[in-house]
Amino acid sequence: xxxxxxxxxxxxxxxxxxxxxxxxxxxxxxxxxxxxxxxxxxxxxxxxxxxxxxxxxxxxxxxxxxxxxxxxxxxxxxxxxxxxxxxxxxxxxxxxxxxxxxxxxxxxxxxxxxxxxxxxxxxxxxxxxxxxxxxxxxxxxxxxxxxxxxxxxxxxxxxxxxxxxxxxxxxxxxxxxxxxxxxxxxxxxxxxxxxxxxxxxxxxxxxxxxxxxxxxxxxxxxxxxxxxxxxxxxxxxxxxxxxxxxxxxxxxxxxxxxxxxxxxxxxxxxxxxxxxxxxxxxxxxxxxxxxxxxxxxxxxxxxxxxxxxxxxxxxxxxxxxxxxxxxxxxxxxxxxxxxxxxxxxxxxxxxxxxxxxxxxxxxxxxxxxxxxxxxxxxxxxxxxxxxxxxxxxxxxxxxxxxxxxxxxxxxxxxxxxxxxxxxx
Length: 424
Known about the structure:
Largest sheet: 6 strands, antiparallel
Number of helices: 10
Order of helices and strands: HEHHEEEEHHHEHHEEHH
Number of strands: 8
Radius of gyration: 39 Å
Strand content: 15-25%
Low-confidence stretches: 1-16
Mean pLDDT: 89
């Protein structure tokens, strides 16, 4: 019976407790991130805009109704007009008198060539690409935040593990020192130096465990990722050609600035066109009227209307031209900033790599010094206080070494995320 219960416990543990790695969480974030919902909303909004811009002058029916009272003759006059896409119909009537109708089509040739909605459609396509870039940038920032949190969590776990191993070592030493103390071979201070270190390590472990729990909860709050009963694997060391990834960093943001500059160019293009080309209306109209003799009178006409502002200066155009000059300067500056950032990232990578090697060497040296002092203590050359000082130094360097390795591996992941080619 006990075997069956044990088997059931093992199966349950396998079902509800499993290991996850950083790659898996990044993939999960691609699905669970709220940025997906925001991007979908923005895409739908852009499609609605496109639909409205495409309608152009066919966007709804414009209606007007007017009433007029002639006090001298004590009569009313009613007039109404409805327009749709250049087509219109008008009706006019004096109370208890004749009715007249007119209908026709009137189009601005200027808008047929290039209208404001045509310009809006051009800019909309550029804005859709900017929306895509913003989505990818925001998701990228979330991934980097996830990597940083994963790194912090693993560093806490690593420190707990190292300190637990230290407790095992000190536990063995405690037995030996306790016997030596009972035999009067060592002073109280020497045993106390070990006991205080042992107690401090226990306190550190308790605090680290609480921190570990809090960090794990943050995965749920920040990324909607539940890590309850799941163990996080160590961050693996990615083998990448980092130079290629660093070379791509900043490209997508530079592309966004180019698109924003292009939108300003589109604004300047339309405003120049609007200022230069006159309003040129061409229309055909038919009038129908019933006179007092109940006779129907019909009349057809073709008309042309031309209007043009002369010596007119557009503040909007001048502003957009100024914005365009600024945007081009910023674009040039951004290119230099990106190159400088890449140099900084290369420098940071080399410094992190160097830090790992330095700490590894320092730890190895301190470990050797600890072993030597332990041997000298056995030979009676030094007291155990010196051994514990060396042990504590070695322990701290060991923790720093493992954290530096973890930080370097996380940094490589961030470079990979930032340097991946994006689809625009």
